[in-house]
Amino acid sequence: MYDAIVIGAGVVGCAVAQQLSRYDGKLLVIDRMEDVADGASKANSGIVHAGFDAHPGTEKARLNVKGAKMYKKLATELGVPYGQPGALVLGFSEEDRKTLENLLAQAVANDVEGCRIVEHDEILQMEPNTNPEVVCALYAPTSGLVSPYEMTCALADSAAENGAEFKLSNPVLEIKPTADGNWLVITERDEYKTRAVVNCAGMGSGILHNMISSRKVKLIARRGEYYLLDHMAEIPFTMTMFQCPTKMGKGVLVSPTTHGNILLGPTANDIDDGYDVATTRKGLDDVLSKVRLTWKNVNLRQVITTFSGIRAHEEHGDFIIGKVEGAPAGAYEAVGVESPGLSAAPAIGQELGDEVAAFLGLKKDENWKKPTPLPKTFRTMTDEERAEAYAKDPEYGVLVCRCEQVTEAEIRAAIRRPVGARSIDGVKRRTRAGMGRCQGGFCSPRVMEILCEELGVSPLEITKCGGESKLLVGTLHQIAKEARPDEE
Ligand SMILES: Cc1cc2nc3c(=O)[nH]c(=O)nc-3n(C[C@H](O)[C@H](O)[C@H](O)COP(=O)(O)OP(=O)(O)OC[C@H]3O[C@@H](n4cnc5c(N)ncnc54)[C@H](O)[C@@H]3O)c2cc1C
Predict the structure, then answer these.
(1) pTM, whole model, 2 decimals?
(2) Distance between CA 353 and CA 365 in Å, rounded?
């Protein structure tokens, strides 16, 4: 019997798990995918929003501002890339100025520090590559950037180091209260009994909520498509460049990432299938036409990939966090956590984790281990640091991913982490091997070999991202034999 089961290993589920791991309970995290951070938490803009966009008085506004204030310390503790370059929301007309003034008023109401309206000349001084037709902008100095999947993986590791179990590739089919006042979590692989269940299942959270609550929710899948530009290109903007928000969301942005790439997007289109992360010609064209308003000279030759992520938009528009209303005791949830959910995650994790621990009557774990910060990457080391790393471990001298300068030592370490990589994408999320211009064209075979060596499995078992995404279909000998069974 577990004290708590967290369903969903995105940034929210992992933040809740890390907070719960500070207590002395028995904890399990379950996800349908083969890795953590395989939902919205791997495919978003990576902005730690300052908090001017969310309507005052909402959970979104409160948790965004609280979470954003927690980021710097948390990212430092975990050793996760984070920065605070600030943001501009651009206005191109007097109509837009009214929108920006409303955003400024929201910033004040939400207690966001330092926001002000800036005019044409100052904008071009701050960001010379901005479209010169810009009239005015809202400047938000506290807007930050984080690597969302690295944050999620690090939170998962910290929870696991403190005893949380992770059972991945394990979709939850049903949750139900038991006659003795506990909960049964039924998955494709097994059944688990628990005193409390915490539904952090992103796009899947609505279905789980409606199974146990008399107060139904409706989640709408809102897809956002992106272009990603190589970090070899000159960085055109140091800040996140937003346009005026629409009723569908924060609009299309141009933003550096924590790794120096440039992100263009996202769109906001409601779709039927909450797991359809395709990109479309129309969506990408839409991104491009809107990006040109911010950045006239955008150069598509620098595009290295496109991707999309799905926002779990609750029809009434706010986060639903806490005890599940209309359900028996012991059920908790984070439902409808669309943007700014990444920014809010540290606050959601802390509040929800503490609430569940209080319900269970758990005590703080005196032996809670502080996270071990992720080590500096080979790519960001100085020559002296590289020499030192190589002296300790000669596998720092074997470069596997040339685009992102990832060494064999780092790939092995990623597989050996508490919640370690088990697939090509798992290695990519933790090390960046395969995230560069060639998109894994050169390094994937070697990454596969290292995965096989570390996990003691055959190359035929290695997948891109779990499930049926196997990369090899058989050995040449096997394939030839199947084609001509009678020949020796
Ligand atoms: C295009 C886009 C841009 C965004 N930009 C930003 C931004 O810049 N800043 C910001 O603050 N926020 C942003 N967000 C929002 C942010 O990404 C999300 O709020 C956050 O990632 C939600 O985390 P989560 O853990 O709730 O969901 P997820 O990361 O989706 O995790 C949910 C997990 O539950 C699992 N799951 C689902 N159903 C089941 C089941 N039945 N059984 C087991 N497991 C299940 C899934 O596999 C998944 O791993 C953006 C979102 C999108 C889509």
Answers:
(1) 0.97
(2) 14
